[in-house]
Please model this.
Amino acid sequence: MSLIVMKFGGTSVRTKSTRKSVLDKIISQVKKGNHVVIVVSAMGRKGEPYSTDTLLSLVDKNINKRDKDLLLSCGEIISAVILSNLLNNSGYKACAVTGFQAGIITDTNYGSAKCMYANPYYLNELLDQKIIPVVTGFQGADENFEITTLGRGGSDTSAIIIGAALKADLIEIYTDVDGIMSADPKVIENARFIDLINTDELFQLAQKGAKVIHPRAVKIAKEHNITMKIRNTFSNNPGTTIINEKLKHNPNDMNDVLSSIALLKNRTQINISRVGEKQEHKLLKLLAKKNISLDLINIFPHSIIFTIDSDDIMKCEKIIKQEKLKYTLRKKLVKVTAIGSRMHGIPGVMAKIVTALIENDCEILQTADSHMSISCLIKETDGDKAVKALHREFIDFNI
Ligand code: ADP
Ligand code: MG
Model:
């Protein structure tokens, strides 16, 4: 008998018929004799009645941060109550539990709060009474009982926090694809299914834009050494297993140098004329204070170049103007990244990537590399073309 945390994303709980598939997955684990704790996201995507984005469209941007988080937390509450109702109607005792009731205590950083600790007292009590807790993902409360939300992909994080607090045997993240693939299956039809992946590599994939799981969730799973699976709500595929140990490979094997290609959208490049270290240092500190994360930073004798999420343009421009710096913006960019824990030390990978992109008419604006990834900043309109080109070059080739 195991304790399993099962997390269902927005695409899994969106309609009556998809919720039937969710119910079947839960019942199947219970019938195997397992204890389960369910974590749910809000139902569906923008435009659908109870999705988080739809709730947000009910108020204007002047809403204060505290009230905004309270509103944002409602989508998951609706979804948890509906699923609990379904389970009870099917003869399984269940009860909807908010993030706060589940004991997730966060800081007060509304909109992207971090969990400080989790006290699973109430969840354990429900489990002892053989009641299935259906926990709202994406939310917690601060120490003054104010409701907070955990930011994009926050339900993945909730599932891992709860799994770690309960010392669960397994965390299953259910979504609408069979598991981790070599690229977004919506872009690459024949993307390769990855049955086993190491947490470091998955973190890279998540951080570089594959939205199938949130990078923060992967990081916490790694810290707590929890076994995790990513599975499909709508198929019987065993899914991708995520483990902490490094996977063995043959260092002489030139195939399989890359395992996946990710695309990070919504990027803007900023080029600032240099004015002296003191002022530049101040600028970087001000940007950090506003939680603007900088990527692909390059410092040249006459300019500093970096990229940011395009949603941060206004905040960023305000600071640069206030510091009276000269700058230019290049909008509508994306970052394509090739990932593979085996690429380290293998010569010529960067050259091969650059060649593949240039041959497919993708202009490269900036590059960066680490021991297991190589990224190129390109135009938004070249995004899918670049993913296809790199997939063809490195991954299809090996099938
Ligand atoms: P959920 O509603 O379950 O949280 P998301 O939309 O957040 O689902 O994440 C699942 C989606 O992630 C898939 O439908 C797929 O299009 C996308 N995705 C992007 N990159 C990958 C990848 N490498 N492997 C699997 N899915 C990916
Ligand atoms: Mg998701």
Residues 249 and 279 are 48 Å apart (CA to CA). Residues 9-12, 41, 175-177, 180-181, 183-186, 205, 210-212, 260 surround adenosine-5'-diphosphate (ligand 1) (CB under 6 Å).
